[in-house]
Batch of 2 targets.
Target 1
Amino acid sequence: MTQIATKFLPFHRASIEEEEIRAVVEVLRSGWLTKGPKVQEFETAFAAYTGARHALAVNSCTAALHLGLAAIGLAEGDEVIVPTMTFAASGEVVLYFKARPVLVDCSGSTGQMAPDEMARAITSRTKAIMPMHYAGYPCDMERILEIANRYNLRVIEDAAHALPTRCKGRLVGTLSDITCFSFYATKTMTTGEGGMATTENEDFADRMRLLSLHGISRDAWKRYTAEGSWRYDILEAGYKYNFTDIQAALGLAQLAKCDAMHARRSELAARYTAAIASLEAFEAPPVPIDGQHAWHLYAIQLNTVALRINRDQVIEELKQRGIGTSVHFIPLHLHSLYQGRLGYRPGQFPVAEKYFEREISLPIYPSMTNEQCDDVIEALHEITRQFRR
Ligand SMILES: Cc1ncc(COP(=O)(O)O)c(C=O)c1O
């Protein structure tokens, strides 16, 4: 690879093929665009895939997390334990209720919330724990659920990165009270925007379904079909969080190749990991011993002792060589909202800060070729040679 690349390798590219395009066109031709039969079909297929009893498709993972917290009865003044190493959505949904996101540091090697820190953060106000399977690496759910049970806390998994993650052989989706997935454009399967809440608990499922569409007693599709009636009743002030048949058509086509897409991401991850082992300037992400990584992100760590340049400069060097990257995440406690309104301060969660300062997410998606993966690896070699201390 030459120093200045002619073609840019984007950080992400969705795997949209003819079957997705055909499925969406079919819905457009059907005359029914919003929540209808395709949404039901997608929910049934997703429940079957994860093994969950109930699956509710909504317009984002953020909406699913919000509905999940509503379903467990989160109230003003309650506390919810949230990792600081996560995206805006995981904390903001707690603030919707005037409850407090209690942030917790992560473990250095995996970026996951550290269970011991989590246990220490529990108070008499704690209502729930929201673990997040960072990058798609499985959280230690056995430990988290054991702690939650001991203190009678609810667990809502933020599984935005975790399709298909396995914890000790079991797919994420049935392990805790409610699990929330994301189908945002960059996720392991996508519907453009979208999310799914799964649960084994019928009461939670009913409540999330009711609140997801204005708190109305029945959905619009049934109202407009031959067996439906125009009558409806507003039971509660709900939200406009419904999924659409257009998204569901995309989702069904993506779900059908979820395992194949995962297999390809796993191959790319293995290729990266084998190559990075010989590079002292970079550390490959850990591979779970008794679980399955979804490989939503391939998150490397920079060895700042070995290299003269920092993370931002490495990202710039990769960009110069035609490689798109990203950073996951700026820990929540470093943001203005969390410092201003909630009193968090820099230095409070040192492991997460160090992890963030050294983190780079490399491109990993099914349509990436081995040659493109090797280009990234070669660029890391070049940077190591050029900027070694
Ligand atoms: C960890 C995490 N949680 C939640 C979300 C929110 O997902 P959505 O965009 O589907 O609302 C994201 C999105 O990037 C995320 O990374």
Target 2
Amino acid sequence: MEKISKKELGFNTIHQFNRGELLALLKHYSKNLKGRETNKDRLMVGTVGFPNVGKSSVINVLCGIKRVGVANRPGKTKHFQTLNLDEDLCLCDCPGLVFPSFANSKAEMMTCGVLNIDTMRDYIGPVQLIMSRVPKEVLECQYKIKLPPRDSDRYTASIFLQLIASSKGWLTGSATPNEAIAARSIIRDYTTGKLLYV
Ligand SMILES: Nc1nc2c(ncn2[C@@H]2O[C@H](COP(=O)(O)OP(=O)(O)OP(=O)(O)O)[C@@H](O)[C@H]2O)c(=O)[nH]1
Ligand SMILES: [Mg+2]
């Protein structure tokens, strides 16, 4: 395990720890745990954060093997789970939390993979956001469609979705283009990097 100097030890830092450094830091806190009487009193370390940001992945890295489930969609971890790493440390994997946020709109949280696409109701907001970020030419090339001019009032999320749904043959029960299915597909492409935005 890597040694870290006393000066470097501490949680309130922007330093990105590698596995060895993080384990050394947690061990340091564990050894100096106030009131620790027996070796059975382990330091319990939890993870807190938005869904799909890599909390479970960090736990697996610390364990050195895959002990908790990981997925490329939010809401994979559904229950609180404790894992004894050794006689000093106990790790807790927790479900992600969607904090009320004034900085990020629901559309932004949807496009960065924090909210579940399958349960989304308003799909226009996230698709509008994607259209404002990804150039028209990239959208046309990716989905093999021809969009109205960008400065026209027909350059809308609804028309974009209808064009894709029609070209793919995704129809509703009443044989109109299925915008909701097209929206899910686009947002999934965006969150997985298939539709590139850099
Ligand atoms: N690019 C990148 N992807 C990562 C990293 N860590 C995890 N991932 C990926 O991010 C996705 C989510 O990882 P999880 O560990 O399941 O995320 P989580 O925070 O536990 O998610 P919930 O259980 O839904 O709260 C997976 O597809 C991981 O492979 C990282 O450091 N870089
Ligand atoms: Mg998880």
